[in-house]
Amino acid sequence: MAETPIPLVKVAMAPEAVLWPRLREVLYSGQIGEGATVVEFEEQFGQRFGLPRALSFHSGTAALHCALTLAGVARGCEVVSTPMTAEPTNLAILHAGGTVVWADLDPQSGNMDPASLEACITSRTRAILVVHYGGVPVRLDEILAIAARHGIAVIEDCAHALGARYRGAGIGTLGDFGMYSLQAIKHMTTVDGGMLTLRDGSAVERAKAFRWFGMQRGVDRAKVDITEVGYKYHMNNVTAAIGLAQLTGIDALIARHQDNGRYFDRVMPAIGGIEVARFDAVAEPSYWFYTLLCDDSADLIRRLGTHGISASKLHRPNNLHSIFASAARPLPGLDAFYARMLHIPCGWWVDDADRERIVAAVRQG
What we know:
alpha/beta; Aspartate Aminotransferase, domain 2
């Protein structure tokens, strides 16, 4: 009998009894665009994840575009970033008019190497864009210290890292800006959506205008004066209602990701030929997926597939895309990491028997 497949990623949705009443109320309320439901979702999301200022967007990419613009990124400016991420991270830099400069990776984690980052900074650098890849926090102590020395904003891409912490603080609150993705297959979804958190409260009104054509919501349209380019980046009440329903179960979902991840942290290093991603002792990952390192990753991916276990490299390094050709430079840390890495499932759908099956399959591989 074929083994039940274990997917690498999977959509989590609130139970019908929780979700349908909220959706019905909004859908027949007469206001399905941005309104009170969006505000309620922002407030509850912020309270749950310890964010003093949480602003919703229709995507995480839009939230990143806003953060980059607020950080001063424009034509002629540089942003030091990582190529090991989903493409929207770095496309957002182009949306803002900036130029991408690649920092190399720590080959033991897939996250930005602080030493490489510092070597990339020039007089044109306006922001450092870090990605907590797979839910594993970057080496924030070192990166924040570098940013402080140079007076440069740090933007945290937390698309994979909802619920992760560093020195006890929520990921996304330590930099100047943090972005959270609510896209379909993340820890928590609103079908599509994103959240932005800002350290500087004085930038909130500008961010709100940025997401709504350069205008403030609720202002008399006959009297408003647009002074800066804005976009249609706001969230709507329908997706916010889904978000409110999702918040009722998010603690258990994240806890399961973390429990599975910590289990793999304990048992995988004992398997010959296998290494796992390293991270600072003060970091608490949220393990969106789990990363293994081995010398023949392609063969292990194939062997796991024969056991019905989905495994892959998931992302293509962004520096391989033609649109980023002008940023090309040697990245030996990236090359070493990408050659050896593969991702395995560790999400809420992976029960105790599944994770033991995954470990057994890795041992056989």
